[in-house]
Amino acid sequence: MPPAYKQLSTHDPEEVSVDPTSSPTSRLTSRLSFTAVARLIAVMVLAYAGVRFLTRAALKLRAPCHSGLQRNLSSLPTHYTLPSGDKIPSVALGVWQASRGEVGAAVTTALQAGYRHIDGAWIYRNEEEVGQAIRESGVSREELWITSKLWNTFHAPEDVESALDDSLKKLDTQYLDLYLMHWPVAFKKDTTEVDKELTANPYPTWQKLEELVEKGKVRNIGVSNFNIARIQNLTANPLKVQPAVNQVELSYWNPQPELLAWAKENGLLLEAYSPLGSNKQVKESLEAPAVQTIAKQLGITPAQVIISWHVQRGTIVLPKSVTPSRVEENYHIFALPEDLFEQLETAATSHPPLRVVNPSKSWGLGYDVFDDYPQ
Length: 375
Ligand SMILES: NC(=O)c1ccc[n+]([C@@H]2O[C@H](COP(=O)([O-])OP(=O)(O)OC[C@H]3O[C@@H](n4cnc5c(N)ncnc54)[C@H](OP(=O)(O)O)[C@@H]3O)[C@@H](O)[C@H]2O)c1
Hints:
With 375 residues, the chain is an alpha/beta fold. It has 2 domains: 24-60; 72-348, NADP-dependent oxidoreductase domain (TIM Barrel, Alpha-Beta Barrel). Helix content is 46%, strand content 10%. The chain has an 8-stranded parallel beta sheet with strand order 3-4-5-6-7-8-9-10. Helix 4 (103-113) links the parallel strand 3 and strand 4 (117-119). It starts with 12 loop residues before the first helix and ends in a 27-residue tail after the last helix. The chain binds NADP nicotinamide-adenine-dinucleotide phosphate. The site of NADP nicotinamide-adenine-dinucleotide phosphate (NAP) has 29 residues, from helix 11 and helix 14. NADP nicotinamide-adenine-dinucleotide phosphate (NAP) binds next to helix 11 and helix 14.
């Protein structure tokens, strides 16, 4: 059955308003006044449309991308879900090189600004002050995400649990949300001499970390500074718990697109350390022309551009600052309009990669721990 269309009116709309009983003069008058009114309405509609168009064009000229930014404000993830089901906040305060005497205030500022994720490590030698600031903040433990890392001297299976216990005691907490193997390098006990066997095969260390999960002292475990080959070397073993994250250097200077693509394909979340280029390269990062252009276009700071870019790439980001205004600034991230995100991605991946953190030489490894420079 064809659809029952409504019969269209054959009347000329102008004639509808004409009273057939009126005189020709009055008909003419009423026709004239109707035409005038119709014209007036048409002029008003056109004028309204014109003003609307001009206002919009003027706003666009003043802040071409702000409207895009506003639309996207809420679309960056605030958390990622780990294989355990735990939700890890996407922005953390990093506390490496936040010295004792200033790290506590930085943590306090961060928690007041809304951070709920602190990225620390036993080797940063500031866990007691971090713990004290957390305790005094009044933020409940359940609301917080605390990460610490197993230092290289404690990879021997018999040392792993006591190393964790020391961090727990210093941080004054019953459990960690995330415990990472800090480096794919094991030192012999109380030395900086490399334990070649445990370095080549980190599985015995990992098994102890798995036990800590079973005991409830740690909710998630992961690795740090592992390249693809080293992750595969570990995960080739019959793991009970897969690494939840890999914390690596990711910045404008060292964006590691291949590692990021591989991690996404394999469901492994990356955490971006030294995201601003660390203290050695921070100025160069913030002054990079691509970063500057986007910051000006969007009316946000260069640090916010970079930190937002990291989250938009799908990683956790761990900016460190002990400067209160920067701690706050770094927490406010914005989804970049797609074209600007791509511009930054292209700029970051179009120069030779440059790492800030690589202790291979100072540890006397005799090889590059990242295999960037095969020897
Ligand atoms: N797993 C690992 O092996 C490893 C290695 C390195 C780092 N990390 C983690 O990643 C975190 C961050 O890395 P990072 O500390 O090397 O470097 P980063 O966060 O890239 O940079 C820190 C530097 O940037 C400055 N800064 C921060 N925010 C700024 C802003 N808005 N404007 C201008 N300058 C700003 C800081 O100065 P102020 O503090 O003076 O404000 C500091 O000098 C560490 O704290 C640590 O938690 C892990």
